[in-house]
Fold this sequence. Notes:
- The complex is a heterodimer of chains A (183) and B (213).
- Chain A is 83% helix and 0% strand.
- Chain A is flat, with a radius of gyration of 22 Å.
- Chain A has 183 residues and is mostly helical.
- Chain A has two domains: 3-103, no CATH class; 106-177.
- By secondary structure, chain B is mostly helical.
- Chain B has a two-stranded antiparallel ribbon with strand order 1-2.
- In chain B, helix 3 (71-78) crosses helix 6 and helix 5 (106-128) packs antiparallel against helix 6.
- Classes of the chains: A mainly alpha (183), B mainly alpha (213).
- Chains A and B meet through helix 1, helix 3, helix 4, helix 6 and helix 7 of A and helix 1, helix 2, strand 1, helix 4 and helix 8 of B.
Amino acid sequence: MNPRCWLVAYLVAVVAATFVHAPALLAAALALALAAAGRDRWRLLKRTLLAILAFNLTVSLGYAAVALWRGDFNPHYLLLVNLRVLLLVFLGIWFAARVDVVAAIGVSPTLTFVATLTLGQLRAFERIVKDFALAFASRSPAPPRLVDRARHAAAQGIALMDKTQAAATESALAMRSRGAFDA
Amino acid sequence: MHIPDGFLAPQTYLPAYAVAAGAWAWAARGLRERLDETTVPRLAMLTALAYGLGLVMVPVPGGTSGHMLGVALLALIFGVRLAFLAYSLVLLLQALLFGAGGVTTLPINALAMGLIGATVAVATKSLLARFNETAAVAIAAWLSVVLSAIVVALVLGSQPLIAHQPDGTPLFFPFGIEITLPAVLLPHLVIGIGEAALTVPIWRYARSRKWCS
């Protein structure tokens, strides 16, 4: 199956999952997806759990507290919403791990091109932000003051802008030399 | 601020996709008209920058942190259409590659943060720039965060009314507007200050290099 077909299958599965309100069916779909994901299933499931943990825990605990206080607590809701979110996010992470996302969403050459360049920069920015965070931590033996953290955030923003400008210029020159704008 | 997958009913996200599709088509027309060897790489890089700025944690009094949207910055540099397109791409990549947000919530996230945030930023700056340009940019950035947060809170808070069991048990997001509005809005009143504090120097930097449209 080509990436575009995988994308369509993924989107159909996602939309279908939001129309299912039976926890047993969602659990069966999740088991099916886990079985189909192959050897990577536990690694993908771990990533999924980490991605949804904070938000789902907050919503679940908040719901439990409010519903118990009101006296209308329903464990079926907690099961339903957590299974649905788990299934949807697992499908997304499995899809991204299995398929070339840029090729799948490439409905036009322009969008594919912009997405490819953007992804390359995302990786670079992640490295820069991580480097900044490590450097800031190493320079802060005591907990930093608010003003220090603000100054650090501003410096990080400027560094990202510099990187952006340099990368944009470099890409434009490389593209021009390869005839990308000749048409 | 992103709404994750699984908390919006199809009655919400399917019509939202129809609205967003129209908005994306409108924004893409603007892109094609302005496409050249300078705008294509710069758009890609600033789209990545918006994502990168989302990783920059802004200190919030009390020891917690928030993150910038970056959409006001994109809008003030490129205008509403390109900012909306670029931010939608950021949201799509975040959803597919990092599990942040989601494909069912993409149109609401894109319309709230990408379109409304960008429109509010540009309109506010246009209205207030005659008094003080720097203050106008700061207020524009703050308002873009706050109004986006209000829209997200209203959409989330409407879910129990839109989709519920016959006995009233919610099927998607469980809390009503009376809870989501203060819970989402109050932190973003402060996060908006951080957005403004970072947007102003970066916008001045961009203006000094004649990046602004």
